[in-house]
Specification:
It contains nine helices and no strands. The chain is mainly α. It has one domain. α1 runs antiparallel to α2, α2 runs parallel beside α5 and α8 packs antiparallel against α9. The chain starts with 5 loop residues before the first helix and ends with a helix. The relative contact order is 0.13.
Length: about 200
């Protein structure tokens, strides 16, 4: 797993982003009348809220097999659910926002699917630390992360970092919704950080 200092720090980060999105969702839904349909903004908050919870879970336990693939399916549904919002967005900034949210959901799918592969070398190093240095090095070599996984992971790191910069720019230049925009930036930055640490 990740180094101890990062686990509580990132847990606090994702707890904060989750609370911002859950709070916004609850405030909006409390003001709705009857069975009003879920809005695009609601979907974004649901996506980021679920994302925050999933990230916290991954920080504390190795998510594998059925649990991991169930979450992959959930994030695929969340990503696809935002397609109508992309089609309906008229402004370029609005479309980039929606693409950013969809990209974060796809990044979560990658993180969940690739977690065992990305962290295999880290796990082997930890397992070999109690033995001779030669044995530990051999174990790490046998379970080295494949080059293709490294390259794909770098792509998602760049994608998440770019999304974080975009939402920081939006938070600094638009009036209103700055807290939510800042939380999206923090979420994307935290995701990029976690992807780097997992691939360490």
């Amino acid at each position: 797993m990740l180094e101890t200092p990062w686990v509580p720090l990132l847990t606090a980060v994702f707890l904060a982003t989750g609370l911002v999105c859950a709070g916004g969702l609850l405030i909006r839904r409390r003001g709705t009348v009857g069975h009003q349909k879920v809005s695009d903004t609601d979907l974004v908050d649901i996506s980021h809220g679920v994302m925050s919870a999933a990230m916290i879970l991954m920080l504390w336990v190795m998510v594998e097999d059925v649990v991991a693939w169930a979450q992959v399916a959930i994030f695929a549904i969340l990503a696809l659910s935002l397609l109508p919002a992309y089609r309906q967005a008229r402004a370029t900034s609005g479309r980039v926002d929606v693409l950013g949210h969809m990209a974060m959901a796809v990044s979560m799918m990658w993180m969940l699917a690739a977690m065992p592969t990305l962290m295999s070398e880290m796990a082997a190093s930890g397992a070999g630390s109690g033995h001779s240095h030669g044995g530990g090095n051999a174990a790490a070599a046998l379970t080295a992360t494949p080059m293709w996984a490294n390259m794909v992971n770098v792509t998602f790191v760049v994608l998440a970092a770019g999304a974080a910069l975009w939402w920081l720019y939006r938070a600094a230049t638009v009036a209103g919704h700055r807290l939510h925009l800042a939380s999206y930036a923090v979420m994307a930055g935290g995701m990029a950080t976690m992807l780097v640490l997992m691939n360490g």
